[in-house]
Design a protein that fits this description.
The complex is a heterotrimer. By secondary structure, chain A is mainly α. Chain A contains eleven helices and two strands. Chain A has a two-stranded antiparallel ribbon with strand order 1-2. Helices cover 73% and strands 0% of the residues of chain B. Chain C is α/β, with parallel strands linked by helices. Chain C has one domain: P-loop containing nucleotide triphosphate hydrolases (Rossmann fold), CATH 3.40.50. In chain C, helix 4 packs across helix 6 and helix 6 runs parallel beside helix 7. The longest helix of chain C has 14 residues. Chain C is built from ten helices and ten strands. In chain C, the strands form two sheets. Chain C has a six-stranded mixed sheet with strand order 6-7-8-3-9-10, sandwiched between helices. A four-stranded antiparallel sheet of chain C has the order 2-1-4-5, with helices on one face. The chains are: A mainly alpha, B mainly alpha, C alpha/beta. At the A-B interface, helix 2, helix 3, helix 4, helix 5 and helix 6 of A face helix 1, helix 3, helix 4, helix 5 and helix 6 of B. Chain C: Keywords: ATP-binding, Nucleotide-binding, Translocase, Transport. Chain C: GO terms for molecular function: ATP binding; ATP hydrolysis activity; phosphate transmembrane transporter activity. Chain C: This is Phosphate ABC transporter ATP-binding protein.
Chain lengths: 329, 291, 258
């Protein structure tokens, strides 16, 4: 505005008009203060929510925990509505950890394969579309996966489970006499499909950051495409992939509805993951909520608190790994 | 295949081929469930895609009865998602503004940023339990669509914060400085220069976040409870929603109920895919100049 | 162990656009040939067609013949991967593999080509590092990451990596442009030494460098933006820098260029 010399009259008029338009600046200081505190307040609210989640879950869990007649951490029984109430999270913890770990182990290689496929194998022009197709998997809601799981996947799992049982039955995990369809293994397959997109899109992001010069360095040495991937892409992206699959693990642990629909509840820990039965923290909460007494609700909240803490730890670890990689690059 | 340059040893060639086959296979493996899910939902769901489904509730309809619809559920879902957005978007956008425009690399900003990441990982069922513990058990409110919205808000905030943050970072610094140099105060610069520039990007992020929370079931089961009747008031009493409608109908062994569940799934997926496509369209059509 | 390159009628494309047009030249063995010319004249593109790195870029393709002695690089049964083993390349910015040690960087190409055995690898790695004038500086820390070296050392490491697989030809794409003057001098000394073993082709922006290190010089030019790059002339370096045949070359050399 200082460039206006004021020689021409209409220029002066324009300057004056702008000054008028700028008049509200007199309230700038107050406005700034209000706006800045609103922004900061929102940020602090986010922190407050996280803290509140922890606090209120603890507060509502304590009465139930005090009435509990069983060991909360080691008992396999979940009977909080009985008098006296007895409940422990051993079976839930086993089911949650086992199904999500398995889902992560199934999903990670496939997700990395997809990320490499889109980044280095598929025609460049298609990469956007292919990425979108994988992202669509993430857009399908959990409840629909549950519905599909029960109608389509579960019937197919019968044969697969029997096959695994016959071939790998000597491993205790795949052992057992009656491989079934509604097993922890089936739940893991559903979970693997659900966490595939997040692992693959995060891995792809990491792979995209591999500098072109590193790729060309290996190609110029006479590396095949796979050797280029092994020499230049995978070492560079390793910790990113580890972080991504851990985020997938956290996602799988908290997944509720699809798991609840696929699993049939059989009490007690069963190491044979091909046999029917199993429960996770999340599935147990939705299945038990309707019939829960007040203590029952408290017990469910207590188990939810444990789930919250576990996923928090897994997520923080994953973020730390991803962040450390950033410092490297 | 031998030339004067020698050839790549068969072992290397086979490994290269095998790797390529694996990559193609991995992608195919991901497409199979996607196609299967979409196909199954359409095939099973299209049968009940009729006027009754959109015009009626389940009031007085038993599981084995034909007819009945999801009107109450669709109304519920729309209201809940609208309220969720009304609460979550301002908080999330302001938080992102704080992180990008005010916080810098300060300790508070870094803490908030870290916990936003943590918040993305909160299981939806935990968000539901929290609202149950806070809103219903501590404050003593009844089940309502609004309680469900509160739970969904917790899930929506972090996604919108991240999307907005990314968009704000894309706004060139020169634009802010040009505005400051004109003597425009910071808050007006943010509200009338920065945010409008990033608007389409933020809108895309919000639409994707809405699509994501719309399919959430678990937190709703704990907060809006369940009803077969139409309840237009999201602030009082149990309310329907599409996900809980599907959950209820799918747990009924009667074929008529199962059919309704599939149609519910089809409608839900339809809305979500529309939102996704619209978000893509907005992002592409109104891409800010200079990017 | 060094071969003659004969290029005839070579065109290179990026998608639909012609980047370099109808280039023919002979590059003598055991000598240094420098490519000079203004930015965007296609000299780097041409260099990358000599080891089939050009086609790595999506949509890029090449027409024409490149004979290495008598064998066509673009012959129907030729595997580009095998070509790149025969024709080594050093890039503009040093690009050692960041996750590998100095030793593994040099050994990387050897391992790809199936060289096994610790003592054999040790010998070749040492020889390559000595040839690259780097051995004395790094022999006590071969297991440290290559990324920890200075820029000039990293570039010599990349040269060691390239010559360890005993290529016939060594292509260098502005190898000194990211380096300080002292490191540049070290690389130039190295080039003078390596030409006894290899056919060396170097792209450079620096005319003094071309005059200092090369035996023959090729001048590339471009008629205007969007037009393809062309070879204007190639001759002995002393001739190019004193009395070139073409006026455009003289204009460029003497700085009277556009």
């Amino acid at each position: 505005m200082t460039s206006e010399t004021g020689v021409e009259t209409h220029a002066e008029a324009r300057t004056a008009a702008r000054r008028r338009a700028m008049r509200p600046t007199s309230t700038g200081r107050v406005g700034d203060r209000i706006f800045a505190s609103a922004a900061r307040g929102s940020g602090i609210l986010v922190l407050a929510i996280i803290v509140a989640i922890g606090v209120f879950l603890i507060v509502k869990a304590i009465p139930a925990l005090q009435k509990n007649q069983a060991n909360f951490l080691t008992s396999e029984v979940w009977d909080p509505n009985a008098v006296p109430p007895k409940f422990g999270i051993a079976q839930l913890a086993f089911g949650t950890v086992m199904s999500s770990l398995l889902a992560m182990l199934i999903a990670t290689p496939v997700a990395v394969g997809i990320a490499l496929f889109i980044g280095f194998y598929a025609p460049k022009r298609l990469s956007g579309v292919l990425g979108y197709v994988v992202d669509l998997l993430a857009a399908v809601p959990s409840i629909v996966y549950g519905l599909w799981g029960v109608a389509v996947l579960v019937p197919h799992m019968d044969g697969i489970s029997r096959f695994l049982n016959t071939v790998l039955g000597w491993i205790p995990l795949f052992g057992g006499d009656s491989p079934g369809k509604s097993s922890i293994f089936t739940a893991s397959v559903v979970l693997a499909i659900m966490i595939l997109p997040i692992i693959s899109s995060l891995s792809r992001e990491v792979f995209l950051q591999v500098p072109r010069s590193h790729l060309e360095a290996s190609l110029a040495l006479g590396a095949t495409r796979w050797e280029m991937v092994r020499m230049s892409v995978l070492p560079y992206g390793r910790s990113g992939v580890v972080g991504a699959s851990m985020l997938g693990l956290g996602r799988a642990m908290g997944e509720t509805i699809a798991v609840a629909m696929v699993l049939t509840l059989v009490p007690g820990i069963n190491i044979h993951i091909l046999e029917n039965g199993g429960a996770t923290f999340a599935s147990n909460i939705v299945n038990g909520f309707n019939e829960a007494s007040e203590t029952g609700r408290g017990a469910l909240i207590a188990s939810g608190l444990v789930l919250f803490v576990i996923t928090l730890v897994v997520n923080m670890a994953a973020r730390a790994i991803v962040a450390r990689r950033k410092e490297f690059a | 295949m031998t030339s004067a340059f020698g050839s790549v040893s068969p072992a290397r060639r086979i490994k290269d081929r095998a790797a390529a086959v694996f990559m193609w296979g991995a992608f195919a493996l991901a497409v199979i469930p996607l196609v299967s899910v979409l196909w199954t939902v359409v095939a099973h769901g299209v049968g009940r895609l009729d006027g009754d489904f959109f015009g009626h509730s389940m009031n007085g309809v038993a599981g084995r009865d034909p007819g009945g619809g999801a009107y109450h559920a669709i109304i519920g879902t729309l209201e809940q998602v609208l309220i969720t957005s009304a609460i979550a978007v301002p908080i999330a956008v302001l938080t992102a503004v704080y992180l990008v425009e005010y916080g810098g690399r300060g300790r508070l900003a870094r803490t908030i940023s870290f916990f936003v990441d943590v918040m993305t990982g909160i299981p939806s069922i935990v968000a539901g339990l929290f609202i149950l513990a806070l809103w219903l058990l501590t404050f003593g409110f009844e089940y309502s669509g609004f309680a469900g919205s509160l739970a969904l808000t917790i899930l929506m905030i972090p996604t919108v914060v991240r999307a907005t943050e990314e968009m704000l970072k894309l706004v060139p610094h020169e634009l802010r400085e040009a505005s400051f140099a004109l003597g425009v105060p910071r808050w007006r610069t943010i509200c009338f220069v920065v945010l409008p520039t990033a608007f389409t990007g933020i809108l895309t992020g919000v639409m994707l976040a809405v699509a994501r929370v719309m399919g959430e079931t678990a937190p709703l089961l704990l907060t809006i409870f369940f009803t077969k009747a139409i309840n237009n008031d999201p602030f009082s009493g149990p309310q329907g929603s599409l996900p809980t409608f599907i959950w209820d109908q799918a747990s009924d062994p009667n074929q008529n109920a199962i059919n309704r569940a599939w149609t519910g799934a089809l409608v839900l997926i339809g809305i979500i895919m529309l939102l996704n496509l619209a978000a893509r369209f907005v992002a592409r059509r109104f891409r800010p100049a200079g990017r | 162990m060094a071969k003659r390159i004969e290029v005839s009628g070579l065109h290179a494309y990026y998608g639909g656009t012609l980047a370099i047009e109808d280039i023919s030249m002979t590059i003598e063995p055991r000598s240094v040939t420098a490519f000079i010319g203004p930015s965007g004249c296609g000299k780097s593109t041409f260099l990358r067609t000599l080891n089939r790195m050009h086609e790595v870029i999506p949509g890029a393709r090449v027409e024409g013949k490149v004979l290495l002695d008598d064998d066509d690089l673009y012959g129907p049964s030729v595997d580009p991967v095998a070509v790149r083993r025969t024709v080594g390349m050093v890039f503009q910015r040093p690009n050692p593999f960041p996750t590998m040690s100095i030793y593994d960087n040099v050994a990387a190409g050897l391992k790809l080509n199936g060289v096994r055995g610790k003592s054999r690898l040790d010998d070749i790695v040492e020889e390559a590092l000595r040839d690259a004038n780097l051995w004395n500086e790094v022999n006590d820390r071969l297991d440290k990451p290559g990324a920890g070296l200075s820029g000039g050392q990293q570039q010599r490491l990349c040269i060691a990596r390239a010559i360890a697989v005993q290529p016939q030809v060594l292509l260098m794409d502005e190898p000194c442009s990211a380096l300080d003057p002292i490191s540049t001098l070290a690389i130039e000394d190295l080039i003078a030494k390596l030409k006894n073993q290899f056919t060396i082709v170097i792209v450079t922006h620096n005319m003094q460098q071309a005059a200092r290190v090369s035996d023959r010089t090729a001048f590339f030019n471009i008629a205007g933006t969007g037009k393809p790059g062309k070879l204007i002339e190639i001759d002995d370096t002393s001739k190019i820098f004193t009395k070139p045949e073409v006026q455009a070359t003289e204009d460029y050399i003497t700085g009277r260029f556009g």
